[in-house]
């Protein structure tokens, strides 16, 4: 039986976290646990984007964890535990974490991504207006920029297509202007619709 068919049957064709029925896809729960062959869950687009830190967390959406944390499938329990830890500073999540039980092996798997450390906030690349930027977006410069080490002067209103996000710095993106690859501060760009 194919993985998607198995997950669809297991979940009743709904997200195993929030029970949504639209835009479902397979999420392979990282990292690979050596003794588990079944580590996938069926999740909706909203859950996936927030799990993978591509979107800001929405506490109202994750109230569903009060149900999914009791799921009999270990990958669902692991993701539920990780997401509860991202919200652990909120009383509802702290209460659920105190009730939740994972055996030692499953808890070790859940801790491997580090979601139980830190304050649970995520940093996203955002333009001058606070819009979230993703790789491949087109942005417009909101200020004339002198490019260091070059005679290039990028003018206000210049469109930069197919941007790339700088992985380790959410205040920077990369893009080409006049055929030259440059690093641009996100506070000087506006996302095009």
Automatic annotation (TrEMBL):
Q: Name one Pfam family in it.
A: YjdM
GO molecular-function annotation terms?
hydrolase activity
Domain of life from the UniProt record: Bacteria
Keywords, comma-separated and alphabetical? Hydrolase
Q: Which SUPFAM superfamilies match?
A: Prokaryotic SH3-related domain
Q: Could you tell me which SMART domains the record lists for this protein?
A: PhnA_Zn_Ribbon
> Which InterPro entries does this UniProt record tie to the protein?
PhnaA_N_proteobac, YjdM_C
PhnA protein N-terminal proteobacterial domain ranges (all copies): 6-52
Name by which UniProt lists this protein: Phosphonoacetate hydrolase
